[in-house]
Amino acid sequence: TLGTQTDYRDGETQTDPYSPEYVVLGGSIPELLTLATLTWGRGLPAGLDEVEMIERAREKRAWEATLPPYNDVSQLMKRRKMMDAMEREEWAFREQEIEKLQAFRLKVLKKLLQKRQNNQNELDTKYLDAHWQNYQKAKEEKFKKIHYDCAQRLRKLIAKSKNVMGKLERRDIIKDYTDFSSQTYVPLSRIGFFPDNHSERFVVKSFYHLNTFAGLHELEASLPDSITQIKIKPPEAKYPITGYIRKSARLEVALAQVHQ
């Protein structure tokens, strides 16, 4: 009932394509045997480079067929010149291949360097953004502190200007409550104090939905019986109830009445 996902594809588990057995006739050199060095994954399936290599091999075999024979001494210099020209062509072709390979490696190296530079630029940008945010946060905190200190000093200067002579005055509570413009009737935010800040910290976050009847019923069912079923224990008499009341008890009742 469980499925598994492997790390390998079906193509990676296959072997090389099947190559049937062959027999070479005597005296014949099949052209197909010149490709025996090519295997699956190493030259096969053939690409543009392999096709160019095959064409160059055909041209070389055709050139070898036009060479003068070894036993002809009169054509020895011609044979040597043709071989020298072919060797120069081979060296020129190898130089072209080397230059092509170097150009490809240089292109790959440029791409890697560009990728590394882009990664470094991205890291530098993130680093600068983090520093900029930290500096912005520090600047905002500094601005808040400056505004708070400014408001506090302004309040001190206003309070000091009200009593220029420096006389000590008691607070007149009746005057504060009769004057509706006094500090008694204005919110504390006037002097920079906000008692309702972060009031959400004191909100009770219950697991039950207390704004629905089902939530209240569930909460009530989870409480112990000692909370929902209160047992009232009658108070015991401080003094034994008899026909005669002590003088100390009568005196306590009289004192309680006088005190009330």
From TrEMBL:
- Residues forming the CFAP91 domain are 4-156
Q: Where in the cell is it found?
A: Cytoplasm, Cytoskeleton, Cilium axoneme
Name the principal localization, coarsely classed.
cytoplasm
> What does the UniProt keyword field contain?
Cell projection, Cytoplasm, Cytoskeleton
Membrane-spanning residues where? none
Q: Which residues form a coiled coil?
A: none
Supply one GO CC term from the record: axoneme
What is stated as this protein's family in its record?
Answer: Belongs to the CFAP91 family.
Report what the protein is called.
Cilia- and flagella-associated protein 91
